[in-house]
Fold these 2 entries.
Entry 1:
Amino acid sequence: MKKQYLLTPGPTPIPPEVALKEALPILHHRTNEFAAIYKDVAEGLQYVFQTKNEVYTIAGSGTAAMEAAVVNVVSAGDKVIVASCGNFGDRWVKIAQSYGANVVQASVPWGNVVKPAEIEKALKENPDAKAVYTTFTETSTGVVNDIKAIGEIVSKTDAVFIVDAVSGLVGQEFKTDDWNVDIAVSGSQKGLMLAPGLSFITLSEKAWKAVENSKAPKFYLDIKKYKKSYATNETPFTPPVTLIVSLQESLKVIKEKGLENLWSEYKLLAKAARAGMKALGLELFGEIPCEVVTSAKAPEGIGGKIVKTLREKYGVSIAGGQGDLKGKIIRFAHMGFIGKADLLVGFACLEMVLTELGVQIEKGKGVAAAEEALLNG
Amino acid sequence: MKKQYLLTPGPTPIPPEVALKEALPILHHRTNEFAAIYKDVAEGLQYVFQTKNEVYTIAGSGTAAMEAAVVNVVSAGDKVIVASCGNFGDRWVKIAQSYGANVVQASVPWGNVVKPAEIEKALKENPDAKAVYTTFTETSTGVVNDIKAIGEIVSKTDAVFIVDAVSGLVGQEFKTDDWNVDIAVSGSQKGLMLAPGLSFITLSEKAWKAVENSKAPKFYLDIKKYKKSYATNETPFTPPVTLIVSLQESLKVIKEKGLENLWSEYKLLAKAARAGMKALGLELFGEIPCEVVTSAKAPEGIGGKIVKTLREKYGVSIAGGQGDLKGKIIRFAHMGFIGKADLLVGFACLEMVLTELGVQIEKGKGVAAAEEALLNG
């Protein structure tokens, strides 16, 4: 009997009507019934990715789709540019290097955002680069990169532009086709308001040309297998049917609400979260904050304790820092099925925890500032 | 409003108490609560695999765990022996070849079982073989291989013995450690009575030595990452938390019932299924039938129609043949959460469908023979 409040950047809370679909009896995946669901899901995914291209569903964590975006594009020895600004950007480096790619880094220190001009420079210096990899919203630090600007630059070259939109999709404006993103990947447990276990990938015509030339070894993540099965509304391997049935429901929820409306709501939550942090004297972290998670510097030495106490004493899960930022920042997520009141729960409990840990704050001030922002829109 | 009856070799029906767990609110995966569940699940998996070694959970279809059993063991150019007797055995060949392995086949025609003596011969002729891959229950044809005998042979060599136990685990006696299996893989949607989306792998000490020498590129399926996280009851990537929470419940169901009792029950169901088929004049297919699926030859030209009509008219899902066996056999599965009555539903509807398709049978005869077998134990 411990009530839980999830304010983490994945997994996120999911609507009860979506959760209940997971409990329905198992459907066989080679039936007309399942094919109809899969087709509906595929169309819904095209809407959330804002793409006319096919979106494939892979059973696995978001990292599986990231790896698919490497093994289907590169060959050992290929040059690729990675523009990382945090833990998830660094994952592109690790995956690409695992497959023998020659990685040119156009990365920036954690907390900063990727500089489009640096990517332009890297592309000029490396005209043989096969691909540019970056991250949309980098949740490890809480920043957002200008994918539109980078997409415009990469589109003028032969390189394929590949974006990790795992945490940002649905939570913040993202337009795969309009922004010249050749490959976008995402996962189920963030903005899509679903349990973890599914990952997604979509490829442009330009990306498919790179796929034809890729020689990296692959089987489970061979995207051609997914494309072939997609034509008959199937998956190449047994799909997680219960997750896909509940995905159909969450996509319905998203479509009914409208992507633009969701973007506005998360934007407002982000504004309120930033106001709350500032009112409590917590300095915001990150060059350009994203709209799905808010990072702030923790008072010296107690970053880990804040996260632990919030969870153990009040059932409120937020995230701490990763890598070098461990213990140094706290991260409040506002993605997935989350409302204004959830954010206020987070701030109220944060105020109690800060007080308990001996930080001098004025109780109620963070909540008040967040309320003010929410009221003023 | 169409009632469905699932008699397919995966996904299989799951107990309602297991299904309902999937609908519980999302737990964060980096918490003490989740770690306790993961630990419990890991112990339950050791029980079902009958192993003292660690069992790792990978988010993905069963094929993901199969690929993990290749990329963590072989390097390009390595010689491996594959003993296939069907579609899933052939998958070992495809995966191994995708990673540049030099595959020596000790395979037999579909419907036959792998011959231990052939493997002994192949090992003698290829003393440099790094691994022997085979399948426990080959559901594409309905046979079971003598893993114990093969394990004894391979254990006397330097090769690692790797078994696909995706469909047979829990459904038929399988003992990883006692049978000298170095790597066993499985999936969630068969005997484990769970939705698809999880796959499992366990490795012996001998297998770990091969892992140290493997140079195949990998990231998501890098088993060392799973071993490292396992030490703190975690997974390297966000796990499908709802599936793992429901896995805890299905493992509880299995432990309460007892593996030996489950093996006996499926054995009886298999006996009844074979009796039913024979009574309807359908010749059994496969050299040594397994206990999780029963295959029979379909009357000339109507194999596909039987499967389609059963599904569309009566909501009964069974499986047809794959590959060259397409349209030639029908397969009744008795794995997962399935009772005696489910099997009788299958035979009753099969009798109606055969009659509708013009096959001369005596209605009730298949059901009667199955009842007889079930009553006599």
Entry 2:
Amino acid sequence: MTGFKEFPSYKRLEELAKSPLDLTADGALSPERISQYVASAEGLRLLYATEKVTDDVLKALEGLAGEARVFEKMKNMQSGAVVNQIEGFPSEERKVLHTATRDIFDDPQDSPSASEAAALAKREVDKLEAFLPGVEGRFNDLVMIGIGGSDLGPRANYLALQYLQKAGRRVHFISNVDPDDAAGVFEEINLERCLVGVVSKSGTTLETLSNEALVRRRFEVAGLDSNHHFIAITGEGSPMDNPERYLESFYIWDWIGGRYSSTSMVGAVMIAFAYGFETFIEWLKGAHAMDRVALIPKLEGNLPLLGALLGIWNHNFLGYTTNGVMPYSQALIRFPAHLQQLDMESNGKRVDKQGKKVEFKTGPIIWGEPGTNSQHSFFQLLHQGTEVVPLEFIGFKECQYGQDLLVEGTTSQEKLLSNLFAQSIALATGKRSDNPNRYFPGNRPSRLLLAKQLTPYTLGAILSYFEHKTAFQGFIWNINSFDQEGVQLGKVLAKRLIEQFKGKREEGAPEEYPLGEAYLRQLDEV
Amino acid sequence: MTGFKEFPSYKRLEELAKSPLDLTADGALSPERISQYVASAEGLRLLYATEKVTDDVLKALEGLAGEARVFEKMKNMQSGAVVNQIEGFPSEERKVLHTATRDIFDDPQDSPSASEAAALAKREVDKLEAFLPGVEGRFNDLVMIGIGGSDLGPRANYLALQYLQKAGRRVHFISNVDPDDAAGVFEEINLERCLVGVVSKSGTTLETLSNEALVRRRFEVAGLDSNHHFIAITGEGSPMDNPERYLESFYIWDWIGGRYSSTSMVGAVMIAFAYGFETFIEWLKGAHAMDRVALIPKLEGNLPLLGALLGIWNHNFLGYTTNGVMPYSQALIRFPAHLQQLDMESNGKRVDKQGKKVEFKTGPIIWGEPGTNSQHSFFQLLHQGTEVVPLEFIGFKECQYGQDLLVEGTTSQEKLLSNLFAQSIALATGKRSDNPNRYFPGNRPSRLLLAKQLTPYTLGAILSYFEHKTAFQGFIWNINSFDQEGVQLGKVLAKRLIEQFKGKREEGAPEEYPLGEAYLRQLDEV
């Protein structure tokens, strides 16, 4: 297996990175460049004139993709090959088939593995469709209990579509083991009309089970039978797959990783409850359409691959350690938090697929907040600080609610877009000034994912775009983007500390753990 | 003026950074170290055994603080000297007296400048106290319209104290010029019982005025006189200081920067409305107490200075480009977003106070999410990724609502704390493994700000801790932490784009702006 740094195109890109395009040079950012450096698919347009790339760089990046065999790898993944693995070492050894959860429309994958997964997914979609009428008139609130991928993706997608909220329906999320999380949510809920969805693939997640216990007690205190209010979203046969305790079980499988689970029942039940079954299906269709785009076996037209390659250029060749995601849409307020998990948990790795320590940078730090808010916050540093942050902007031509107003000749949406475009230009071109404190160095790269409106279909396509962008980067780096061994040590140590707390209460003698005891002693001092 | 890199202690630290403490070495992280590397003030304990510091490093850092004259600079700031300035160039030339907004208790600053400011601040506090009874029984919802410092700090503080919410009181925030922001907020509000607070020091902020217009129209459409529902939080004599359009004007002054304005009327009106006047005063008292701590003229006991120096060690000497803030408290969910503005807008600078381009790194990128959620998200990268991120944890011994439950022998709060302590240990010590994918390199620094409970007083102290930590870092780097010239270029270009939109609608002929036109043409393609 040839490694990332051994590809011929790697050397070429390293060479090109010695004198990258200077966006502040006279005429470097021209109207022609803005209209030429555009790619589009499924209603999304990726504008990348403000990246520090030339045609030479793009050609070399395409070469890199070919040398890393990303087209074959993407096809393998979507066909149901066991791609979640480390060769020669014990690892998860799983398929990666989140795409199957939306492969229920035209032109499905024909491999037996993918077909079987899609059939299972379709069965759950049908189950959900049959379940929903029973909810009508009975439940107003849905409280989702889950953490990590069972929380961040669903929450980001829920918030993105609130303009479609069905009357009398609300969704709430409890994730943190912090007991104040659950307490805060229930301040305003009528328990009699409350449905609770508990999400855990294994049925054993510490935070989720603790919160489920907290919430079930709340029902009992209110004299209600919690078993008539709870549904499970879990693996078939898990400890939570129990009809006596849950009205219904919706299934997920080991081929759906938490951070890739939004379009499985993990996100589906909640989206369909809040916004209706048709909205849910539109959202799936958008994601499915972008899955197909990711299979295009060349750079042209393959939007997620282009995004992945531009990111690698910035991170590995130009040396920028973080990647900002700035949606100019209040509805996408928690989308950066979802992308943090999706990207950083997938690609924050130190060994390659053969278990060899990598000698280059893998996944960057992802962070961001919506614009224009972020302009009034940390954009000072982005324009004049000593760290350069490549940005991924996301924007829409039209707003969602359609409640806008002309003030001084323009709508708020137009002001929003004006700010968005202005930031791209300002970061790229900078500005000379005799006052050194009013000097803008510019030459700071960004790109923009632009669409007509944030509809369910578009949201699905954006979600899938980022999933495949992440996977493509992992393919190029030859790392396993689908496991998360790095979270295990914290779990093990947390268990030892929990034993300390337990021992203290029970006046027993827990296992000796001096470091843990030292921390517990600090609690006596506050 | 001696620059950062010319200080004798800089050379010493540079030398020490060549072989920093290895936290993975046998016995490096000991129970003794955990109890020794602790500092405390006003109920906050800073545990920093898991930072890569030795007594030598701490001594050199203290030397650096002395050479940079930070004690004198902090005293000057709190006394009302004109510290917001760049020498020899046009600049804001302002005092920086956010501390005066809470200097209304014992032992006030005695300089005329600070006394005068505190007297003005006290007048507004009294005005607020007199205003509140009139709100009783008349208003249930308060909608705050503001952006940047008028949004992020207040919102973070509001969310942090929701357990104290007065019955029938809710606060909402509209910030983004995205018209969907306002539309979403008003889905569930009874306008007749709604008070609206508009925040803009200048009375001219684009986003805020656009949102005010949107919201006023909503009242008019409902047949209500908006002038009876609006209050202004603005500079005295600004265009918004108009009793015909606002029930009341609460004043702020040019010596309160947006990101430092939480404890001024910008945050005060909203906190007092939601949680009562007494809670507001407790919060001020906590902030005031930490202001006093920041004035301690030595490192010992000066908690914000210690935080600042540890950050500089990590950023400038160990070379880490970002700084993660991870509160193990769901109530602090938006505190990292506030700190992004506070820190990055303050210290994301490229010239020193004499206008000379700096030759070192100024402010890091600040980012983070609450634990334990973040553990299930991006902590994979923190443990095993190729970027090292120094972390600032925040934790509390007790929860806020007191609604907790023993599950398998421990409470949720104990599980939360177990995870928090476990992460500190895991990041520091790492773990050997024959499976390279289960190998944890460790040696990743963190520290922990620990307190008994997140009360109003503690929240005020934490807020002030971070304000002064930021200021101290700016003092050491000799930069102006109180202006934000870097946001101006974007504003100028946005205005040109707004003119393009206007011109298109009015079929007039706006100023020629080819780059802007090129972006507008892209909108026709989506």
